[in-house]
Design brief:
By secondary structure, the chain is of the alpha/beta class. It has 13 helices and 20 strands. Strands 4, 13, 14, 15, 16, 17, 18, 19 and 20 form a nine-stranded mixed β-sheet that branches. An eight-stranded parallel barrel has the order 5-6-7-8-9-10-11-12, surrounded by seven helices. A three-stranded antiparallel β-sheet has the order 1-2-3. Helix 6 packs across helix 7. The chain binds ligand LLP. The site of ligand LLP has 24 residues, from helix 11 and helix 12. Keywords: Amino-acid biosynthesis, Decarboxylase, Lyase, Lysine biosynthesis, Pyridoxal phosphate.
Length: 469
């Protein structure tokens, strides 16, 4: 769309779905978002304008209510629709930090971690919450297609479940387990050969994927594990992709996993858990149409239960590991508007004080976002602009051709639905410090991540003496 095209004459309030869906992933804004009497966006009872004045910008603003609601809906949905035991675990790669882990833990979630760093963050938070070793061990699942020996040792020390991805890891683990004295709990990740419609980079369950055992290897793997007393194989896992709007792929997955589960039991493996991964999509724009958390959980749960009945196997503990749909819709990023550049008859750019370093998704996946001026939510949308970041790279565009009120320097622009894979993929490109993050709830705002300072940026730098002479 060219800038000459007239935008819809409406206001930023259109981002607020009325009534909001109770399922966080079906809204553009967090559940507590309202427009106050000054025409400002408020989240968790806090004015976004006031938050930026207090904490500066860019700023991630995380709504506690939305995150808790999403977690509760996941848990309740599985409890309602699955006849066996269930456990929802948070895919902490979506946003791993102490406060998010603490909230997820308080809501009864377990944790999917994929690196020593995520494991360390999660264990640190759980210890601060007073969890004992047994609880921590039970609730953490360690993933990854190339875990280092050190990471495996760290996982064994915590006694969490390790999701084994390939033969090398299996062989390494069986040696480590034999030395550790106690059996090591493992699950097997398999590539189920299920296609789903999402971006090529975030699709993982099709056969040509770097993750997991190819199904035609599985019987050999079962045979191998059955002869390893030090490896206690609890179950099977698969994850087919992310930002998925269909229910069918996870229904198919339930059937495929249960078939392999039944086969694994015939090898005498002590299987009792089945992990269907994550993947439920969220609304980034009005045209996104994901099922609700309950609809998704119900579809997945029923397909697993039906397949268990069909194959005559006891209902395993059903594990789902969502990330995006737990935290994605709970957060907005607030920026200050800077200058503008008008390219006559082509485009008007307005620049903000962050960009691809705090949200690499547009440049990486061509992701589309929605924006509003948080301090002028009731102003008419009078122009079409492209929101550019401040990085030295032409592709550093946060949102293309969006309708906004005529933005002035100092206005506060929010990008919605930035809770998942924004902070966690943020970088220091151009030596920008990563933004601060605040947790908002009932009019209170607490810092959960400090803004990186120039000193932080130098913390890892080393200047060899010989360069000084
Ligand atoms: N389990 C496993 C094994 C995964 O690999 C993932 C995501 C999840 C669970 C959580 O999936 P979710 O519920 O969040 O869809 N950086 C990309 C997303 C990569 C997803 C990687 N794996 C993005 O920004 O879209």
């Amino acid at each position: 769309m060219l800038s000459t095209e007239m935008p819809r004459t409406t206001t930023g309030s259109t981002l607020l779905k009325t009534p909001a869906s109770p399922s966080p992933n079906q809204n553009l804004l967090p559940l507590t978002a309202v427009i106050n009497k000054n025409g400002e966006l408020e989240i968790g009872g806090c004015s976004v304008t006031a938050l930026v004045e207090q904490f500066s910008s860019p700023l991630y603003i995380l709504d506690e209510t939305t995150l808790r609601q999403a977690a509760q809906q996941y848990r309740q949905s599985f409890q309602t629709h699955y006849p066996g035991p269930s456990q929802v675990i948070y895919a902490s790669k979506a946003w791993s930090c102490l406060a998010v882990v603490a909230i997820a833990a308080q809501e009864g979630l377990g944790f999917d971690v994929v690196s020593g760093g995520e494991l360390f963050t999660t264990v640190s938070a759980l210890k601060q919450l007073g969890w004992d070793e047994a609880e921590i061990a039970e609730k953490i699942y360690f993933h990854g297609n190339n875990k280092s020996v050190q990471e495996l040792q760290e996982a064994i020390a915590v006694n969490c479940t390790i999701i084994v991805d390939n033969w090398l890891e299996l062989e390494t683990l069986s040696k480590l387990a034999a030395n550790s004295g106690e059996p090591v709990k493992i699950m097997l990740r398999l590539t189920p050969g299920i296609e789903c419609h999402t971006h090529e980079y975030i699709k993982t369950g099709h056969l040509d994927s770097k993750f997991g055992f190819d199904p035609n290897q599985l019987e050999a793997v079962f045979t191998y594990i059955a002869e390893q007393p030090a490896l206690h194989c609890l179950g099977l896992h698969a994850h087919i992709g992310s930002q998925i709007f269909e229910r069918q792929p996870h229904q198919d997955l339930g059937e495929v996993l249960v078939q392999w589960f039944a086969k694994g039991l015939t090898y005498g493996l002590p299987l009792k858990e089945l992990n269907i991964g994550g993947g439920l999509g969220i609304c980034y724009t009005e045209s996104d149409d994901p099922p609700s958390i309950e609809e998704w959980a119900q579809a997945a749960a029923l397909s697993v239960a039906k397949a268990c009945d069909h194959h005559n196997v006891p209902y395993p503990k059903l594990i789902a590991e969502p990330g995006r749909s737990l935290v994605g819709s709970a957060c907005v990023t607030a920026y200050r508007v800077g200058g503008r550049k008008v390219v006559p008859n082509i485009r008007t750019y307005i620049a903000v004080d962050g960009g691809m370093s705090d949200n690499p998704r547009p440049i990486t996946y061509q992701s589309v976002y929605r924006v509003a001026l948080a301090n002028r939510m009731n102003d008419e949308l009078s122009e079409t602009v492209t929101v550019a970041g401040k990085h030295c790279e032409s592709g550093d565009i946060l949102v293309k051709d969006v309708a906004l009120p005529a933005a002035e320097p100092g206005d506060i622009l929010v990008v919605t639905a930035t809770g998942a894979y924004n902070y966690s993929m943020a970088s220091n490109y151009n030596r920008l410090g990563r933004p601060a993050a605040v947790l908002v709830s009932q009019g209170e705002a607490n810092l959960i991540l400090q803004r990186e300072t120039y000193t932080d940026l130098l913390r890892q730098d080393c200047l060899p003496n010989r360069l000084l002479s």
